[in-house]
């Protein structure tokens, strides 16, 4: 029984360390840098004494090379600590980059599978039935996320009730303004190569969201393309629904992604 408890505890600890390894390595690296500074400061008086003693023995001022030769051992612990700290910070960055790359790959595969699935649905049931299915999904989202339970955000761009399927937010705007925003951002993408989801929200007049900097559009994968649909919200108010024909993706700001 005790052995099983120990094994489970070990597995849990190993899993936690692996999951939070970037944060752990970053913390160790920062702590190591602080320790390096403290160690170097404490070593300085001893180093100065060694340099003074060497100068007294030789009866002259030491040059740079001689100063290093006389005092370098005092700073050896600080150098070791600093090297290990840098290695931890580099390791944390490497792990994070690998995880982001894996996430971007997984997202791309999922996106491709979804696109192929939608194309097959259209070829089997036809465009009208496929649109009917999409409309039914949107109606369910509006029913499950009623406007009465949400704060309606005012963007200053119109009085039409709108609903964004990605962020699940209701807001007041205008279809022509949103179309203009999309056209302007797509034109900007010609020179900037990519646009974040938060860039779109900011242009519409909506607050940023945490996921908005992780998702976006890359010119190599396609321009922003919003599909508009009008449905009744749970309170009976006509609602303009924003769906995305070309979904924003992870790794959008990495050129050569496609």
Global structural class? alpha/beta
Work out the radius of gyration. Answer: 30 Å
> Helix-strand pattern, N to C?
HHHHHEEEHEHEEEE
Compute the average pLDDT: 76
Total of helices: 7
**Regions with little confidence, pLDDT below 50 for 5+ residues:** none
Write down the overall geometry: elongated
Query: What is the strand tally?
Result: 8
- CA-CA gap between termini: 52 Å
- Strands of the widest sheet, in order across it, are 1-3-2-7-6
Helix content: 55-70%
**Total separate domains:** 2
What does the main sheet amount to? 5 strands, mixed
How much of the residues is beta strand, in percent? 5-15%
Outline the structure in words.
By secondary structure, the protein is of the alpha/beta class. It folds into 2 domains: 101 residues, no CATH class; 125 residues, no CATH class. It contains 7 helices and 8 strands. The strands form 2 sheets. It has a 5-stranded mixed beta sheet with strand order 1-3-2-7-6, sandwiched between helices. Strands 4-5-8 form a 3-stranded antiparallel beta sheet. Strand 6 and strand 7 form a beta hairpin. Helix 4 packs across helix 5. The protein is elongated and about 95 Å long.
């Amino acid at each position: 029984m005790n052995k099983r408890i120990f094994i489970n505890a070990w597995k849990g600890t190993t899993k936690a360390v692996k999951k939070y390894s970037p944060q752990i390595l970053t913390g160790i690296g920062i702590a190591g840098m602080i320790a390096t500074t403290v160690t170097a400061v404490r070593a300085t008086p001893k180093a100065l004494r060694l340099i003074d003693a060497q100068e007294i023995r030789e009866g002259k001022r030491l040059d740079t090379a001689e100063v290093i030769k006389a005092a370098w051992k005092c700073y050896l612990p600080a150098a070791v600590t600093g090297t290990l700290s840098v290695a931890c910070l580099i390791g944390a960055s490497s792990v994070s980059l690998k995880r982001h790359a894996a996430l971007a790959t997984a997202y791309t595969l999922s996106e491709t599978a979804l696109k192929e699935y939608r194309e097959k649905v259209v070829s089997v049931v036809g465009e009208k039935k496929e649109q009917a299915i999409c409309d039914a999904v949107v109606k369910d989202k509006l029913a499950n996320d009623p406007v009465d339970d949400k704060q309606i955000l005012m963007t200053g761009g119109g009085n039409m009730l709108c609903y964004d399927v990605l962020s699940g937010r209701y807001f007041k705007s205008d279809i022509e303004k949103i179309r203009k925003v999309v056209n302007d951002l797509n034109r900007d993408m010609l020179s900037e190569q990519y646009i974040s989801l938060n860039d779109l929200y900011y242009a519409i007049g909506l607050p940023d969201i945490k996921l908005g900097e992780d998702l976006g559009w890359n010119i190599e994968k396609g321009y922003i393309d919003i599909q508009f649909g009008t449905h009744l919200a749970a309170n009976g108010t006509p609602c303009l629904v924003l769906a995305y024909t070309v979904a924003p993706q992870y790794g959008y700001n990495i050129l050569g992604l496609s």
